[in-house]
Amino acid sequence: MLVLQSSLSQAAVLLAEFKWDTWLLPLIWLSVMVMSLVIESQTTDLVSIWFAPGAFVAMILACFNVNIYIQLLTFSIRSILGLVLAFTVVRPAMKKRITVLKTNAEAMSEKTAVVEEDIHNAMSTGVVKINGQLWTARMEDPDLTVAKGEWVVIVRVEGSKVICRPAK
C-alpha cells in the first residue's frame, strides 16, 4: 500500500511540475491541423484545407514558445490568404479544367446514322441504326422522307425518338 501511495504522489508531483503551456499549444495546433484535413477529406469545397498550413505554422511557433497572440495572428493571416487564394485562383482554374462529357442521348446529336426503315413522318414510320442500336426516327422537316440505306444526321433526341436531317 505504501508503494502505491508513493507512486501516486510522484505522479501528482510530475503533473504539477509539467509545463502544460510548453506542450499544450502545439498539441492544440496539431489537432486543428488534423481536424481541418479530416473535414476537407469529407468535402470537395476546398474550404477547410486552408486552415491546415496556418495551424502547422502556428504549431511550429508554439514549439518555440512564441507569444500566443502572434500564433493566432499568424494562423489567421495564413488561413485568410489561403481562402482568398482558393476562391480567386484555384477554384476558377479547376473549373476551366473540367470538361463535360456528353452521355447517352446528349452524345447522339450530330452523329450520322443509316436508315434501316424508310422515314416518313406522316405515316409515323422510320428506324435508324446508331452505333449498332436501332432507334425510332422522325425527320426535322415533316415534309421530307428518307429511304432505307440513306444516311441522316441526328439533330436531337426527343424521348425515345431521334430527330434527323438528311446527311449531305
Mean pLDDT, to the nearest integer, reads: 85
Low-confidence stretches: none
Work out the helicity level. Answer: 40-55%
Apparent shape: rod-shaped
Q: Radius of gyration over alpha carbons?
A: 34 Å
How far apart are the first and last residues' alpha carbons, in Å? Answer: 102 Å
Class of secondary structure makeup: alpha+beta
Would you give an account of this structure?
The protein has helices at 2-17, 20-42, 51-63, 68-97, and strands spanning 112-120, 125-130, 133-139, 145-146, 151-158, 161-166. It is built from 4 helices and 6 strands, in the order ααααββββββ. Helix content is 49%, strand content 23%. The chain has a 5-stranded mixed barrel with strand order 1-2-3-6-5. The radius of gyration is 34 Å and the shape is rod-shaped. It has 168 residues and is of the alpha+beta class. Helix 2 (20-42) packs antiparallel against helix 3 (51-63) and helix 3 packs antiparallel against helix 4 (68-97). It folds into 2 domains: 18-97, no CATH class; 106-166, Nucleic acid-binding proteins (OB fold (Dihydrolipoamide Acetyltransferase, E2P), Beta Barrel), CATH 2.40.50. The relative contact order is 0.09.
